[in-house]
Amino acid sequence: MDSSSVFANIVRAPEDAILGVTVAYNKDSSPDKLNLGVGAYRTEEGKPLVLKVVRRAEQMLVNDNSRVKEYLPIVGLADFNKLSAKLIFGADSPAIQENRVTTVQCLSGTGSLRVGAEFLARHYHQLTIYIPNPTWGNHTKIFGLAGLSVKAYRYYDPATRGLDFQGLLEDLGAAPSGSIVLLHACAHNPTGVDPTIEQWEQIRQLMRSKGLLPFFDSAYQGFASGNLDADAGSVRMFVADGGECLAAQSYAKNMGLYGERVGALSIVCKTADVASRVESQLKLVIRPMYSNPPIHGASIVATILKDRHISIYLNSIQKNDTMKEFLYSNEVLNNAHKDSGFIEINSTTGNIYSGMELQHVHYNICCIQKYIKNDFFDLLDPA
Ligand SMILES: Cc1ncc(COP(=O)(O)O)c(C=O)c1O
Predict the structure, then answer these.
(1) Which reaction does it catalyse (predicted)?
(2) Of 225, 236, 276, 259, which Cα lies nearest the Cα of 110?
(3) Is the peptide bond before 190 cis (omega within 30 degrees of 0)?
């Protein structure tokens, strides 16, 4: 009997708006089903795909008998942290050379955002964060539950299906000085609309003049322009001016490591001394949450980023024209287009913004198996 349970009064919570699509997909017995809920690499048969470069790295790790399963430090794998900072800020970043960056391994993009949010809620003087409207659905909850007050700034203009740049400037211009501003580093989710370089520069000038603190969310590095460096351009612009910022990185999408939960939070500070004090406090945030991060996924990423094949990896991402071709020719999407009257595949980012549901749903489809198979893995593994 329910009433005997101490939890009898618990109300059933709704499914998560995005992950709930996967739950519905798994329940559906139709042979024609296609999961558009979460962007993930798929084979031509629609099956989950593990990148060969990941399999290779895993093989190298398994064959290395010197590897053990001891706990990582609270901040994670040192190599992974260094390589992640280089990937986003650039190998020759003065901020890295001057030891002004602290990087901690976290549980993918979500965990990196949450650790950053908890740190800011404890130690930053302005507890308001501005997030774009619309944005990835989890942002509001991550920042709100960490104790920040979440406000929106205008971002997308449905009339032009482009950036509401004027609205964005007005809203950030009216934000109280010192406010935190969440910026999608590239391939904005869910719209696929990014500011141009010139617009980024204006955003940077406005934010710096008002002392607004940038918090970059980089979940799709490599997916917007097809070039990892170019996709980090927005972040690097804010680091080049010597100012401070936060950056959350996810390897879920660009290395297809979704379930491994690999990510990093970096905080760029004015001096090495501040960075080291910030890191000491990040440890206090992480320790009671999950003690220290898992070793496997971060080892895969570190192995790949260290490996000489990184250049091939970079090049493969640059070949995203084939990805676009594939997306455009996707029959299911074309049918969805007819049914819904509105589904848009962003021509540069491959992100898809749909009006099929009452609320906007993100269909960031990463069905890029064709270009991976043809151009990347054949090079890595010709046999
Ligand atoms: C904009 C954005 N940020 C962060 C994430 C976090 O993803 P994960 O926690 O799987 O790395 C996602 C995932 O879809 C996203 O779209």
Answers:
(1) L-aspartate + 2-oxoglutarate = oxaloacetate + L-glutamate
(2) 259
(3) yes
312 CA distance to ligand 1 middle (Å)? 25
- At residue 125, the 3 state secondary structure works out as coil
Instruction: Say which range, 31-45, 71-85, 137-151, 289-303, has the weakest mean pLDDT.
Output: 31-45
pLDDT tens per residue, range 258-282: 999 999 999 999 999 999 999 999 9
Closest residue to atom 3 of ligand 1, CA basis: 219
Which residue range forms the structural domain that includes residue 275?
78-306
Please identify which of the residues 194, 231, 253, 324 carries the catalytic annotation: 253
Residue 63 located in a structural domain? no
Q: Are 100 and 244 in contact (CB under 8 A)?
A: no
Q: What angle do CA 223, 16, 158 make, to 5 degrees?
A: 55
Question: Would the CB of 108 count as within 6 Å of ligand 1?
Answer: yes
Give the separation between CA 98 and CA 341, rounded to whole angstroms: 53
Which CATH number fits the domain that encloses residue 100?
3.40.640.10
**What is the Cα–Cα distance from 121 to 130, expressed in whole angstroms?**
14
Q: What single string gives the DSSP state of each residue in 46-72?
A: S-B---HHHHHHHHHHHH-TT---PPP
More reliable by pLDDT, 118 or 50:
118
